[in-house]
Each structure stands twice: as C-alpha cells, then as structure tokens.
Amino acid sequence: MPKITTLLFDCDNTLVLSESLAFEACAELANEILSSRDIPDRYTGPQLLSEFVGQNFRGMMVSLKAKYKYEMSDAELETYVTREEDQVIKKLKEKLQPCAGVDKELQKLDQEKKYELAVVSSSALRRVRASIEKVGQDKYFPYDWVFSAATSLEKPTSKPDPAIYLHAMKTLNKTAEECVAVEDSKSGATAAFRAKIKTIGYTGSYEPEEQEKMKKVLVDAGCAVMMNDWSEFEGCLEKIEKGEV
C-alpha cells in the first residue's frame, strides 16, 4: 500500500458553507442574462444550486447557453465572470461560515504534521482565498497550495474535468496513490475519481432530507468512503490507508 502523504480538500460546502451565498449572486446574474435575451424563465439561488451544483460560474453559463440556445461572445462571458466573482466575494466576506466540525479536524491535522494539505476547487482563486481567509483556515494551507480550475490552469475549466487535480498533483510532485480528496458534489467526486484519487464523500452541508440521496450520488460518482460529519473524517481516512476501501 502506498503511504498517504497529501490531503486535497474541495472548498465550497466542504470547508466553508459558501454554495448558497454564491448561488444567490449567480442567480441574480443568470436572470439578468435571460432577461436581456427575452427568455421568460428565472432562477432562484436554490434552483440554480440543484441544477448546477459543483460547477463554477463559467461552466454554469456554458450550460445555460446550451439549455436556452442563445449566443454569447467570449468578451461578454468574461465580463459576467468578473462581475460574478466580485459579487460572490462581497457576499462571502459578509456572511461566510465554516462547515460544522471542519476547523477541529484541520487543527488536529496541523498539529500532527503527518500530511500535507492543499485546496483544489472549481471556483476562482480570488474567491477561494477570500473564503478560507474569512473563516481563518488559510493558516492550514500554504499560499501556493490553493488551486483553482477557473484560474490556475492555462485553459480555464471546471470539475468534473480532472485537469485541476492533475495540475495540483504535478505542481506538488505527488502521485494519485499518495493523495486522498474530500468532495461534496457529483462533479467534484467525478473529477477526483477520473484523476484516480481515492475520495471521501461529504454530505454534511446538505439539508437532512437531501443527505441520503447525495450519499448515493457521491458513491456512484466514485467516492471510496462516505462521511456525514467531520468527526468521521479520521475513521474514513484510516479505512483508505488500511486498504479497506
């Protein structure tokens, strides 16, 4: 069994409770786009979240464009991407909270110094850094160990594309066998699975009635082991290290 040396954490709704705040801002912009195209449909934050969870804003805009079959130039898309980033960061700085129980685990990992810790997200780097700084988690992750599919790659993409995981491992000089990822969405779990990384699926950020459904979604997407609460993290990691999953 290769030794696990590195833990790769998704950010949104895995480390911090950011998705509902972010999707509030996304919905405002998505509705503005639909309105400007005379498309009568409108989204609330939760509707957008259930349809596009785990995708970054750029990926969402591409999906919306395909769904409603309208045109959008690259320049217009970039304008919206920048505006979305600004609006989301403003909301996060006002209201963001950490996921329940995660700080205790990060503190423990930091004290033990057994693993190296990195963040691997679909969201823009500015947003990810603003998020972990707001809740005081930035002290656990070296500045250059925060990776974004929207910013860190030559060609911006979004999970479920595994590119950001492959890039992070290459940058950190790690193999998939020595890494474990933690993901809460289908697209994130799929990205890690495609990068051949054993993944812990986390359902604690979902409403109680959603958790059972998401457990199945994450297992189907390739998660090796599931946790509903961060207090289960150590046990999940142990199962992977012992080769039980």
UniProtKB/TrEMBL annotation:
GO molecular function: phosphatase activity
Gene3D superfamilies documented for this protein: HAD superfamily/HAD-like, Putative phosphatase, domain 2
InterPro entries documented for this protein: CbbY-like, HAD-like_sf, HAD-SF_hydro_IA, HAD_2, HAD_sf, PGP-like_dom2
Superkingdom in the source lineage: Eukaryota
The protein's name: HAD-like protein
Originating species: Mollisia scopiformis
